[in-house]
């Protein structure tokens, strides 16, 4: 019985170590993904619309996606890194497609270092 418990503890420790070593591309629970119009298009448009409503977006500047992150949380949380020339923004959009729900939950400016 003790050997079985010992082996279970070792297995858990190894799985945690494996997960940590393979999640270096994650940011706060988010996994970086490639932008896909079919998957991310509506959420990205919601992010752009939100920035426009805050009068952040300049209509004569074409936005560029610098990075896309996502995580699963009773829906999908997307984090878009959007650049307008040298001005960057991070916009988080929560999506529940089965409820037709898209909601911007946060946005912040990317400060240059």
Automatic annotation (TrEMBL):
Keywords: Signal. This is Cystatin domain protein. The lineage of its organism: Eukaryota, Sar, Alveolata, Ciliophora, Intramacronucleata. InterPro entries: Cystatin_sf. Residues 1-19 form the signal peptide.
